[in-house]
Design brief:
This protein is mostly helical. The protein is built from five helices and five strands. The protein has two domains: 46 residues; 132 residues, no CATH class. The protein is elongated and about 85 Å long.
């Protein structure tokens, strides 16, 4: 029969193993968070930001439309991903193909999937992703912060889909989970 001392030793070993397991689990979580931060920094370095005047007219509603588009298209992306979506939206306004104003472009039929749910245009948004999306919209419009490699890009899609229109020969950059293109397959539209 085991003594009390033996049970105490076994209990201490079990407790120590449990503590070590949880410490290792927390270390793994911290390591994952650090890796994510390094990934975001690498993406920002890859997507060189530049300040470039915005050559379109816009009003308060356009800023709201751009922020909503950024939120729904890239709300979970790093700031470079948000700026990238904002850049494409402004590039589309410059072509006048989808409309003459940001809101026209954002709500142009079949362009941004989130606009199919009409209520999303009016629901009140909040939280950090919304604040970051608003900041990105302001940076693109008022500060003219753009991603240099996307200066002529008009199209993008998430990296987990393969739309029929994509043309790998026109790919210019990947930022976050989005791949950006200057043209769509079969299109002559350019900026």
């Amino acid at each position: 029969m085991a003594s009390t001392k033996t049970y105490l030793v076994i209990g201490a070993v079990v407790i120590a193993a449990n503590v070590i397991y949880h410490i290792n689990d927390r270390i793994s979580t911290v390591e994952e968070q650090v890796a994510s931060i390094h990934s975001d920094v690498a993406e920002i370095k890859q997507a060189i930001l530049e300040s470039q005047p915005v050559a379109i007219k816009y009003n308060k509603n356009d800023v709201e439309c751009l922020a909503r588009n950024i939120y729904y298209e890239a709300g979970v992306e790093p700031m470079a991903g948000k700026i990238a979506v904002g850049t494409i939206t402004v590039n589309r306004v410059k072509t006048k193909y989808w409309g003459h104003h940001i809101c026209d472009v954002v709500y142009s039929p079949e362009q941004f999937s989130w606009t199919k749910e009409k209520k999303r245009a009016w629901v009140q948004l909040k939280g950090q992703a919304w604040a970051d999306s608003q900041a990105a919209a302001e940076a693109v419009l008022k500060g003219g912060i753009r991603i240099k490699q996307l200066s002529t890009a008009l199209f993008y899609h998430a990296d987990y889909v393969r739309p029929d229109w994509r043309d790998p020969s026109k790919e210019v950059l990947k930022v976050g989970h989005h791949i950006f293109y200057t043209q769509a397959k079969g299109s002559t539209l350019t900026l």
